[in-house]
Amino acid sequence: VTxxxxxxxxxxxxxxxxxxxxxGQNPRVFVYKDKKYDALFTRTLGWNGGDGVxxxxxxxxxxxxxxxxxxxxxxxxxxxxxxxxxxxxxxxMIQKGATIASGQESDDDLVxxxxxxxxxxxxxxxxxxxxTHIRHPKxxxxxxxxxxxxxxxxxxxxxxxxxxxxxxxxxxxxQMLWTGVEPGSLKNIDGCLREYSLEGEPGDGQYMSxxxxxxxxxxxxxxxxxxxxxxxxxGHIYLYTTKQVNLVSRVLVARTETxxxxxxxxxxxxxxxxxxxxxxxxPSNEEMERSYITAESGSMPWVFExxxxxxxxxxxxxxxxxxxxFRSQTPYGPFTDRTLLFTLPATLDKLGSPYHQRxxxxxxxxxxxxxxxxxxxxxxxxxxxxDNFNRVGSADFYRPYFFRVYNWEHVYDSDDDSGAGTEE
Length: 424
What we know:
By secondary structure, the chain is mainly beta. Helix content is 4%, strand content 40%. The protein has helices spanning 35-40, 143-148, 285-289, and strands at residues 16-18, 30-34, 45-50, 54-57, 63-67, 70-75, 82-86, 91-95, 110-112, 115-116, 130-131, 156-167, 171-181, 188-197, 210-214, 227-231, 236-245, 248-256, 265-270, 276-279, 299-306, 309-315, 322-328, 336-343, 358-364, 374-381, 402-406. The protein has a five-stranded antiparallel β-sheet with strand order 1-2-27-26-25. Strands 16-17-18-19-20 form a five-stranded antiparallel β-sheet. A hairpin with a 3-residue loop joins strand 12 and strand 13 (171-181). The radius of gyration is 21 Å and the shape is globular.
């Protein structure tokens, strides 16, 4: 008989609020709203909203954050109403690492790598508004318009995942994928690899300076690398994407030859005989559609490893509240044994209307974990884009909320663990 799960020891200063089990989570797990991190991203000056929200652990315990479409400007602290803001298509931040493990994180730890239009005159135009971090080469605005503070609204880059690489010339650097997005359709059209220096300390001007940018990197538009798993033991980076056909979205995987994102990639493809193999050529649609590593649908596949078992968590597709866990014997699948991990709440904790349009891009943040728990952030938007402005609580749409899931390791306790990676 499996013993009853024991609640984790939680430091009160972490400000975690347990979510009631309303039949929407695995009974062995304990799910908490992380009100400390919610408060860190409840902001009134500069960055005050954004989606994407990816993290990467950096040397020294620091954490790299990237965001897609973001709001920069001023928010009313009492009403949480977002006023006039610029809308950079992507943005970066470094969280200093000294306090993360202890749970004493504060706003002082956040170094926003923003190119502000002006921060000197609160009554002037564009106060604490910022420019897009990396522009797409096809973006149409002139340099003069960018300098004025205008934002490209046609071609843009959205963030893929990132890894730390030990470069023979520069030492440890950050390698990051950017995905080019076509206006209107919002389809992936191409890719970019940008490398950043990690010399110095966050905020000193050298740290996170750009070392190189390859605007023609993996320009297939297939989205491999939107999430990654760095397999340091095997010497590969596994690069995941999803392919949507009608209302089904399933996972595919590629991998690098070495732990350098710029090394040759190969794609895990099933041939016409039904056997999987790694191929160097970019797969066709037909090849992709017979090469999924999940049977069930989902979005934002995040893979991690514990005790020799590889796990994948995904949000139900499309825009579901349920977060599922899968497992496998390898980082390239097949990922099976899908089980419900927990269910996101139906409403937001905010002033004004708590009703949002959808949850999307539910991201995993291993670098924020203190005790081995899973840390998730969410993205959500209002039903009407203009509800992001000038209404009570409008600044608490289109920003992340955070959840910590403890005891997740025991969701398969009633199963035969020797079957990990096989269908039950």
